[in-house]
Structures are given as C-alpha cells and as structure tokens.
Amino acid sequence: xxxxxxxxxxxxxxxxxxxxxxxxxxxxxxxxxxxxxxxxxxxxxxxxxxxxxxxxxxxxxxxxxxxxxxxxxxxxxxxxxxxxxxxxxxxxxxxxxxxxxxxxxxxxxxxxxxxxxxxxxxxxxxxxxxxxxxxxxxxxxxxxxxxxxxxxxxxxxxxxxx
Length: 162
Ligand code: RP5
Fold this sequence. Notes:
This protein is of the alpha/beta class.
C-alpha cells in the first residue's frame, strides 16, 4: 500500500484548531489526512493501537499536537519509525514555551521534528514536503504554492504573512 496519507493526532479537543490548519493545507495540496483526538496520558492503549495500525491505512507521516506536558509527539515517535512532526500548543505556565521545550528536546535515538507554537499550517506543509520526496506531482504543487506566495507578496506587500 502507498504511504501517502498523514495521520494527525491531538492530545485534546482544545487543540483541534491547529489540526484543522494542518488538514486544510494538506487538502489544498491534494494530500489525504485523518485526524484523531487521543491523549497519550488518558488513552495510552488507544494511542498505541492507532499508531500500530497507521501503516495499514497508508499513513506515511504523523503530526502530533499537544500542550502542557506535551508528551504526545514523543510517545508517537517511540512507537513508529515513520517521521513525526510535533506541534506545541499555547497555554500552560509559559504559554507554549513549556510545550515547545518538551517536544523539541527529545532524547537522542527518537527524533521529533518540531514546528512553532500553534503552527499547524507549517506542520501540514512539512508533512507534505516529506511525502513529496517520492511524489513528483506533490513536489510540483508545493513549488507552485511557494511561487504563488511570493507573487502575492510581490503584488501587494500587505499580503506578507497571510
Ligand atoms: C494536553 O493538555 C493537550 O494537548 C492540551 O493542549 C492540554 C490541555 O488539555 P485539556 O485540559 O484542554 O484537555 O494534553
């Protein structure tokens, strides 16, 4: 089976906005995704079975989104050799810095690629870039998106950062 889908998981329903941003940019690029809410702490067995069965559903990359202790991306990475992108969420005692440090500081041997706090869109784009290594059409769609972004800013600098 092709491994051309993205598995998105959040630690709580309160993280769902970031998951929607990731899914939206993937959809725009023609990449299928599935989103689940599964806490690494409150539902560890369910998380393990979702990760273990992901390859059977064509998942080639994971995006794991969590705040506070933010163990979810690392726990997913501990259970798969597929790439895992972590998205730290705002909130907690230092409004996301805590989750950022928790996710980015994985011990050696079990990496997690980490994007900025709350940046579901970049997680989606990075997941697409990983899948594009073996998908020429997707690589062209990503390049076209970059070109459109640059052209839109050149046409009106007010579009920067939109
Ligand atoms: C984490 O705790 C979740 O990823 C979420 O970001 C944070 C708060 O969760 P809730 O208390 O809103 O369920 O596990």
